[in-house]
Design a protein that fits this description.
Blueprint: E1 2-5, H1 13-24, E2 29-32, E3 37-40, H2 46-56, E4 66-67, H3 71-78, H4 83-92, E5 97-102, H5 109-112, E6 117-121, H6 126-135, E7 139-140, E8 142-143, H7 155-162, E9 168-171, E10 182-185, E11 192-195, H8 201-208
Parallel strand pairs: 1-9, 2-9, 4-6, 5-10
Antiparallel strand pairs: 2-3, 3-8, 4-7, 5-6, 10-11
Helix pairs in contact: 1-6
């Protein structure tokens, strides 16, 4: 595994381009987010996403969440967001609110496992957003830990868990940790709380009033 150190505020484009190349070649990259370190694979590459499941020990009936660089990038692949989705996205992104939206064409089956929906957010971490931007599309963002273990907030924690199982580690320093992102299903007429997290349910409802 290659480890590349990045400035978390001004990550250099060459290193991000190198990481994007790894994804396009089917490899897996660990990178920092505003909560914990995550694992990126090309969500259009079935074999790469399956490898992600294997190294995490993740049950194959669990779908994989995604991140996007911004709302524009998401809408370029997923189409226009619903009014409710757009209001929450504009209010809480970048940030730890994950929205469950209709799945779009081009994602591998391994990402959504046959479900009609997929979870996505725009994180409040420059490295994560710029990585997705340089890659050119949303990318996977499952936490960089083996199933059952604590999600890591440092590159050292990622290396201890995965070693040579991943191709590249983007070391952007320690992340904030804390609570994971809040997950809200916005595919119906009313929002549904799937997982409580860093954004309170009361704040979500207040935004929609």
């Amino acid at each position: 595994m290659l480890c590349v150190r990045l400035d978390s505020v001004h990550p250099d484009a060459a290193s991000l381009g190198r990481a994007a190349d790894v994804l396009h070649q089917g490899g897996i990259v660990a990178y920092p987010t505003d909560t914990f370190y995550g694992l990126a694979a090309n969500p259009s590459n079935q074999q790469a996403v399956e490898q992600l499941y294997r190294i995490k020990g993740r049950a194959v009936d669990q779908s994989i969440p995604l991140i996007a660089a911004d709302r524009d990038q998401l809408e370029a692949v997923a189409g226009s967001l619903s009014d409710m989705t757009a209001r929450l996205a504009d209010h809480f992104w970048p940030g730890p609110l994950t929205l469950v939206i209709p799945v779009w064409r081009g994602l591998s089956f391994a990402v959504h496992q046959g479900r009609a929906t997929v979870a996505v957010r725009v994180p409040a971490h420059r490295v994560a957003r710029e990585f997705s931007r340089v890659f050119g599309a949303p990318l996977t963002s499952t936490s960089a830990n083996r199933t059952g273990k604590q999600a890591p907030t440092t590159a050292d924690g990622v290396e201890q868990d995965f070693g040579q199982s991943i191709a590249l580690l983007l070391d952007g320093g320690a992340t904030e940790g804390g609570q994971p992102s809040t997950i809200v299903d916005v595919t119906g007429q009313r929002p549904v709380l799937i997982r409580a997290g860093a954004v309170s349910w009361e704040r979500v409802l207040e935004c929609l009033r």
